[in-house]
Amino acid sequence: MEISLTRIILFGQNIEKLKNFYVDNFNFSVIEEIPHQWVVLNAGSIEIALHKIGEAYLTKPDDDFKVTSNTKLVFTLKTDLTLFRQELLKRGIAIKEIKSFDGINSLFCDGEDPEGNVFQLEERL
């Protein structure tokens, strides 16, 4: 199984301000954007994504996820996400259901490490 860290997501309230900061000060280029919601920056060998934080993360969630960080590590799999997710569940790892988004050709699921840090697994289709 091959897994690689491909993206770090930073959650925030003012995505335009964050985007301008990284573009203006670090000369990162924008490679994907949904205005005021989502921006992906080319930061060399890894991408930095800026994601407007949702209401669910501003209040205490109803599930077992603690979400105390504004950062998410994204690991891209070169294997079947469904099978890998099942293996993690067998190991007792907290992991959410697989999801997809319109216009994005990938499957995703979020998990949590023993310290409460959120990670995302991505299978590109």
Automatic annotation (TrEMBL):
InterPro entries (alphabetical): Glyas_Bleomycin-R_OHBP_Dase, Glyas_Fos-R_dOase_dom, VOC_core
Residue intervals of the VOC domain: 4-124
Domain of life: Bacteria
Name of the molecule in the record: VOC domain-containing protein
Organism: Mucilaginibacter pineti
